[in-house]
């Protein structure tokens, strides 16, 4: 069942919405995309159902509209700078520290992603991925589908989506494991064909 709390959780806390999905990325099969009960959206006592795509549109419609109004009042550049900074701070605050062990940073970071960070079926429904590399020095995922990206871009709000959802990934990585850094050159949110999340041992 998708509860009111579950529906509200679609609103990201920085990296938890984007980077956190990597915890499921080593599964061998692509995720399924089930329809989910949405009593939270339809109101108490109802049994209406909606897909995850519909749930995301429902959850973010008002948020995107509000952010666009704030951007219009403040100016795009200033607004996006402040939103990015706030998202990065929020992501850092919401991070979970990976136990630091010299020489085992990547091993622990990978285990953290797989077993601890995001075992939530929402991420399996919201993202499609492939594992590009899993080694002692690097962990890389390529995402070809992201409901956060498609939701924000459908409302011509890719920059707001990047500042809200994607920007905090760097701070989240560092705060979770100072020995690991994220390298990313493409995101679906910015109109690329895929997102490349590559985590490497910091030099």
Write up what this structure looks like.
It contains 9 helices and 6 strands. It has one domain (15-32, 61-201): Muramoyl-pentapeptide Carboxypeptidase, domain 2. Strands 3-4-6-5 form a 4-stranded antiparallel beta sheet. It has a two-stranded antiparallel sheet with strand order 1-2. It is globular. The chain is α+β, with helices and mostly antiparallel strands.
Which descriptors would you attach to this protein?
single chain; 203 residues; Muramoyl-pentapeptide Carboxypeptidase, domain 2; globular; disordered N terminus
CATH architecture: 2-Layer Sandwich
What are the secondary-structure elements, in order, as H or E?
HEHEHHHHEEHHHEE
Whole-angstrom Rg: 17 Å
How would you characterize the largest beta sheet?
A: 4 strands, antiparallel
Please tally the helical runs, counting DSSP H or I stretches of 4 or more residues. Answer: 9
Strand arrangement across the biggest beta sheet: 3-4-6-5
Span from first to last CA? Answer: 44 Å
Average per-residue pLDDT, rounded, comes to: 78
The CATH first-level class comes to Alpha Beta
- CATH topology: the name is Muramoyl-pentapeptide Carboxypeptidase, domain 2
- Helix content range of the residues, please? 40-55%
Q: Into how many domains do the coordinates divide?
A: 1
């Amino acid at each position: 069942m998708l509860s009111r709390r579950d529906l509200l959780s679609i609103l990201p806390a920085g990296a938890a919405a984007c980077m956190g999905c990597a915890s499921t990325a080593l599964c061998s099969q692509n995720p399924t995309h089930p329809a989910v009960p949405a009593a939270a959206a339809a109101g108490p006592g109802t049994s209406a159902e909606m897909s995850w795509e519909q749930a995301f549109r429902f959850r973010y419609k008002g948020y995107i509209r509000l952010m666009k109004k704030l951007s219009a009042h403040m100016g795009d550049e200033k607004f996006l700078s402040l939103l990015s900074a706030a998202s990065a701070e929020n992501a850092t605050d919401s991070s979970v520290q990976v136990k630091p062990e010299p020489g085992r940073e990547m091993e622990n970071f990978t285990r953290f992603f797989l077993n601890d960070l995001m075992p939530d079926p929402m991420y399996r429904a919201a993202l499609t991925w492939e594992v590009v590399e899993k080694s002692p020095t690097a962990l890389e995922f390529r995402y070809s589908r992201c409901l956060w990206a498609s939701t924000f871009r459908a409302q011509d709000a890719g920059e707001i989506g990047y500042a809200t959802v994607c920007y905090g990934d760097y701070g989240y990585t560092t705060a979770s494991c100072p020995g690991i850094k994220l390298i990313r050159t493409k995101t679906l949110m910015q109109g690329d064909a895929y997102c490349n999340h590559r985590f490497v041992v910091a030099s």
